[in-house]
């Protein structure tokens, strides 16, 4: 799930809110994924995940105008505090 949300372009904080876990938990899980897939960074993680067939090909996401079907299935993030009107 974290891999799909990273692929969709969500930040660690957004992923944490969506999954109901802490920001550091997401960071640790991303680090663990990078170790498991032997990726040196987040971009390399995405490329490696695609090579292994863990993510859909990027061309289909661009063609449909969507970053990821997984992101569409999730509710929109809830703000932790109200937005101030100016």
TrEMBL record:
SMART domains: HTH_LUXR (SM00421)
Protein name: Helix-turn-helix domain-containing protein
Extent of the signal sequence: none
Start and end residues of each stretch annotated as Disordered: 65-86
PROSITE patterns linked to this entry: HTH_LUXR_2
Superkingdom as given in the UniProt entry: Bacteria
All copies of domain HTH luxR-type, residue ranges: 1-53
Species: Streptomyces ardesiacus
InterPro entries registered for this protein in UniProt: Sig_transdc_resp-reg_C-effctor (IPR016032), Tscrpt_reg_LuxR_C (IPR000792), WH-like_DNA-bd_sf (IPR036388)
